[in-house]
Design goal:
Oligomer: single chain
CATH architecture: Roll
Largest sheet: 5 strands, antiparallel
Structural class: alpha+beta
Number of strands: 7
Strand order of the largest sheet: 2-5-6-7-4
Radius of gyration: 17 Å
Number of helices: 4
Strand content: 35-45%
Number of domains: 1
Order of helices and strands: EEHHHHEEEEE
CATH topology: Thiol Ester Dehydrase, Chain A
CATH superfamily: Hotdog Thioesterase
């Protein structure tokens, strides 16, 4: 479901959407190159195989980045711009491995009408239905 209209009053609590993506090796390597985070847990299979992780894993912040696709999707028919003003209570609960398919569930839980903000609950699950990440996302109406 998506939001339409142009006022914070057009957004309702309980509105939700989801976004799925298979995390590829190229996603992780491009992200590593862009951010400069070349930690061996992400880019060195030999190193990673000797850790408790067992294999290379995606960056937690890459997974968090995919959540913005859900917030963009829920607002695609909204007539006014909104921007992310932050994430709270971000937790990476399980590793995301190359080839995992994650699903981001995004639900607007509350609305701060005076500040023209939405507060959304984010849950990210892998293809096994395991919760791999959670966060709270705050969006602000732009004037």
């Amino acid at each position: 479901m998506v939001v339409s209209g142009d006022s914070i009053d057009d957004i309702s609590i309980g509105l939700r959407t989801s976004f799925s993506k298979t995390v590829s090796e190229s996603d992780v390597y491009l992200y590593a190159g862009i951010t400069g985070d070349l930690d061996p847990n992400h880019v060195d299979e030999e190193y990673s195989s000797k850790t408790s992780l067992g294999h290379r894993v995606a960056h937690g912040t890459l997974i968090l980045g995919y959540t913005s696709a859900a917030s963009t999707q829920i607002l695609k028919d909204f007539d006014r711009p909104m921007v992310s003003v932050g994430y709270d209570r971000v937790r990476f609960l399980k590793p995301v491995y190359f080839g995992d398919t994650i699903t981001v569930d995004y639900e607007i839980e509350s609305i701060e009408r005076v500040r023209e903000r939405t507060i959304a609950k984010i849950e990210v699950k892998n293809q096994k239905g395991e919760l791999v990440a959670v966060a709270t996302h705050i969006m602000q109406l732009v004037h």
